[in-house]
Amino acid sequence: MNLIARNIKALLSPRRYRAELAEAGRMLRSVTEATNGVAETIQGFLASDSWEVRNCALKIIARTRCEELYAVLVAKLAERGEAGIIRRNCAELLPGIGLRTPEIVAALRRALGDRYWEVRAEAARALAELAQESDELETELLDALERERNFEVQAGLAQALGALAVTRRGFEALARLAAGGPWLVRHQAAVAALEMGARRPEFDQDAVAAIRRLDLLAEGAATTSVFRQSILELAELTAKGRPFPSAESLRRRYFHLKWGWLRKNS
Amino acid sequence: MFYLFYEWFHRPEGALRFLRLFRSQPFRAACAAATGFLLVYVVMPWFITLMRRRGVSEQARHYSELDAGRKSAVPTMGGLVMLPAILLSALLWCDPRSGFVLLALAVGACGALLGAADDLAKLRHGGSDRGLSRHVKYAVQIAIGVALAAALLSEATSPVAAEPVRGSVYVPFAKLGYYVGWGNVAVIAFFLVVSTNSVNLTDGMDGLAAVPSILVFVVLAVFAYVIGRADYARFLQFFPYADQTGLFVNHHLPGAGELAVLCCAGAGACAGFLWYNAFPATVMMGDTGSLGLGALLGTVAVLIRQEAVFVVAGGVFIIEIASAFLQDYVGLKLLGRRVFFRAPFHSAWLHRGISESKVTVRLWLLSGAFAVAALSMLKLR
Asked: What is the ipTM of this complex?
């Protein structure tokens, strides 16, 4: 049954699905380990017509670290007939379980071309945490950035480039992103440029120079803006020269659209 | 009340002849606006201090908004000053026996009470999502809408004398209304739910709901004044119908001009509130204010049978509620994905990183354009 028909079915019988959702919510709050029977219950939730129930099921998989159902997260991420919110959440949950298998990374790379922007954005952020830096992946991210018009995805791609890029092309793309556009993209690109400088010492002084060149009074960067404040902090952090801040300490300065300044896994 | 002074004490000659001023609706409308403004302006500082002392502050949502924390410290429920100021100013300057005014004030007060109950529930349970449930709010709003419709459509209680006007729905570019009789109950209840919630959804940033409300009040005041006068209503062809000989004649709504005075009281009170609510706000209107204002604006539009004017003049309100509806019901519930970055509309701009004051001013400009478009509906209908 296609997604809209399933959603309509769920909307037309609210009582039934509300009960299912309440049960799934209770389980999400109370269960912390994949004990006997948990996997079967989750399978039951995954078969629901309500995407909210299926969404809860995915969160239970991640929370209980139910290994036998990890494949569901990867499968749902690629399932074109699944709700966009579910696919977005799969990409968000994958780094949480900490597996770095080639299948997961390949699924996330494919998700960079998804039709739904939230999936692309979360896939880019997940890649930043799970993938290994490589020339090939950098090219893929730069291609994605080239065709991307959505600012949330651009921010995610900047974060991924900060963690994975290895060449000057990647660095220059970040410096360009930091120079203009919505503050979120500029901020993520500035942090990513510094993170790249921390990983690759050959770029550290260029990264510091790029941060100093930023126009802090552009759109969205009035004297009291968060962007201005964060960039000034970054400039101060790197003012002493070496030792350059560590990549880990810089990653904490990314801004997540859902969780704000706190890193989602902290 | 001052209108009654005119009726009771005015004599063409003598010291009290100046009382004839109180007969003039434009004069009373100006006085009502000034009174509404001054009442809010004078009382609000005291109210803000009181709310601060009692720790009654805004329950801001903390998703990814960067300065949600700032709003959490701002006193809320400013509607508790604004709505009584409108009531007092209206009672002073309107004809207090007018069915139009009494009905509008009653519905506005019901909306404000519903909002106050919601605000208090949020404060008691400590969270912006812990107020009254969506279903309870809709149910109460529908009940208020049905009661308003019943009062309007029933001959015994209706301030609108002409039965064909009461029972008709008027849409733009259709000269004659569509007569639906008691079917209008559903239309009016739906419209009231939309108007009430649209103002509530717009009230998400400093000063954002106040300015469009002022503009809609002013537009509705102009329409109420015109519709209340036989000569202007005839010239602009409001409520036309074919008489027995087939000639087109028209109705007007005697007494509707009193709503112009009430609307000006509302505009004045909103302006007084804006004095304190402009960015960075020192007080929020809360649901008490936004639901009350929405109910009042919607009721005035219903009473003068110009729902379409509210839709055009309050275009910003309609955009906000339409974006929230599309996001929640079409996007998330039906398609399982977001349609907009964030909803309502102003949140999407904010989310993109445009500063709050800039978003607010842009939406004010848009409201101004909508108000001008609505005024053109005096002729273009």
From this structure: 0.83
